[in-house]
Amino acid sequence: METTGTPTDTCAGPPQGNRRPDGADKYTISEVAALTGLTAHTLRWYERIGLMPHIDRSHTGQRRYTNRDLDWLALVGKLRLTGMPVADMVRYAELVRAGDHTYGERFELLQRTREDVLSRIAELQGTLAVLDRKISFYADAGRALASERTR
Amino acid sequence: METTGTPTDTCAGPPQGNRRPDGADKYTISEVAALTGLTAHTLRWYERIGLMPHIDRSHTGQRRYTNRDLDWLALVGKLRLTGMPVADMVRYAELVRAGDHTYGERFELLQRTREDVLSRIAELQGTLAVLDRKISFYADAGRALASERTR
DNA sequence: CGCTTGCTTGGAGTGCACTCCAGCGTTCTA
DNA sequence: TAGAACGCTGGAGTGCACTCCAAGCAAGCG
């Protein structure tokens, strides 16, 4: 039945789901799903498109994720929040796989992402200002309506 | 030829495109496209799905946007930046069309959106922290490599 | 042994937000 | 008054990021 568990759980809380039971270093796909908030489907899909490093397999061919894999998924989760396209994350993953000589390129990619995040925050703060103006307008309108009702 | 003009112009700058030539109060669809950064396609689509108020037409049936319409599009643009689904914006538009008795509901919708924006900003700041740690790691690695090369 | 639960695969399907097309009418400039 | 540029419509197509399906294998349990 795939055990979607808590699929993403829209309610607020620790961003990356539950904390991992430390000491362990081998997780099944459904454990990783629970830990990251991603579905097992998505985890397999990430692997297919080259967003994951090579994932270990059990003697029967089932995926066994390590703590290192979870760290990678945590980073991917953060990058996803910035709105970075999956294709760009795949590019980054390729650079990591390619070895140490890609440090420079990775550095640049991260810096560009950082700039994006900064301007995104600025945008959101601009939006917040608009929202606050509208909200205080509606608050006033509400008060006016209320006083009209009690008059 | 549809005159996409400056389609969205990924480069930084004034978020809502150019400033409107004030005094005027009738804009063709391509003027609005240039002003908002949306395409004419998207403007027509917004109308079809009920995201726009009724748009005036010229005697031959062409759209003539007013400054009020531009203001609405500016708000929509801001809400879009927050990641609000178009369906929710349509809901808000419906409330506006429904009249004054929906003030309360609109107020709540805006407040919920405000909370979303706040937590989005917090998320992005968390991501920024992660990014900064990674960036300084790569900066150090770069320096180490450089000193190795000159050694 | 049968049953349930969990995992495997390649490929097809979904939902969102556009994006474009064909075929036609209108408006502007030379 | 020709020709280019712009606008109209309904409907089809696109790209992204998942999301699901069917058929089958493997382990644990009463």
Automatic annotation (TrEMBL), chains A, B:
Highest taxon of the lineage: Bacteria
UniProt keyword Transcription regulation, yes or no: no
Name by which UniProt lists this protein: MerR family transcriptional regulator
Organism: Streptomyces virens
Pfam families listed in its UniProt record: MerR_1
PANTHER family: HTH-TYPE TRANSCRIPTIONAL REGULATOR ADHR, REDOX-CYCLING DRUG-SENSING TRANSCRIPTIONAL ACTIVATOR SOXR
First and last residue of the signal peptide: none
UniProt entry keywords in alphabetical sequence: DNA-binding
Region named Disordered: 1-24
All copies of domain HTH merR-type, residue ranges: 26-95
InterPro entries in the cross-refs: DNA-bd_dom_put_sf, MerR-type_HTH_dom, MerR_fam
Keyword Cell cycle on entry: no
